[in-house]
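[Meeting: bench + compute handoff]

Bench side (C.D.) handed over the final construct sequence. Compute side (W.E.) agreed to return the predicted structure before the next meeting so the bench team could plan truncations. Sequence as handed over:
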Amino acid sequence: MSKKLKLVEVTSELGAGTRGASLGVGALKTASFNINSTFFSIYQSVEVKNYNEFLFTENKTPSAIRVEYVTKAFNEVYNSINEVFEDNEFPFVLAGDHSTAAATIASIHNSHLGKKLGVIWVDAHADLHSPFTSPTGNMHGMPLAIACGINNLSQKVNEVLPEVEVYWNNLKALGENNLSTENLVFIGVRDTELPEDYLISEKGIKNFLVEEIKEKGGKEIAKQALNILDDCDIIYVSFDVDSMDPTEVSHGTGTPVDNGIPLETVTEILLQLANSSKLVCFETVEVNPTLDEKKNKMAETTLEIIEKVAQVISSRG
């Protein structure tokens, strides 16, 4: 029998460069009324404490913005997801900005010791920056570097304050040995900087480009991604809504990028991945209703997708 699915509501937006991602979960709930969805009544949920009040304080760490408070949010997410696993439930994470995905990965690793973890990152961005390489200092661009324990010092462009290094090393310590780049697959990544390009090339990380996705179709791409991770015991899928084509859906996300994955195709990908018995956690991130030029279209579209994904996961034998 499948595990009971538990929604984990993460409203932190400390790692984002624009404001509004903390409203993403609320936007999904509003969408549930607008499209007559029962999603939030079918599944129980847990709300994770955020530290968004510190967004109103002066930032003193430009290479890793508000890293002190991102660390606090990281620990809250880590502990909350651990509890879901301890209750033998399936964590279905609805998050604000993508920085806390590093905590999700850390919790998956902690709750499945001895299991090899594979990650499928459906996103417009690689999120492989560190404080040493980030052009913005926004920590939603750093979760995979945390999970993989990467500094990428050969591509260093920033001077980093000693206190930032302490926080960064602590984050990496909690994420130590959680994920190998050999077990990471990108789907739809198309907006990267040179330090990330270097890592993707050096580590040989597979990235299914949008053109290839359109050519082969969503089901085939998902099958190939799973085949790459065949040696992995467990899999986590992270779905950033900016992976989709903003001209088809909306620009209701912090960093939209043109030429995204078509809506029908990304749905096919996620449903195929949801069918995998290895999938132990699913996460969606970066819905931002304050940036949506089509009212709440991004949240409505996202809800329609993840509702189908949840149904597949819940019905797995």
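W.E. noted at the follow-up: Residues 5 and 310 are 8 Å apart (CA to CA). C.D. will use this when planning the next construct.
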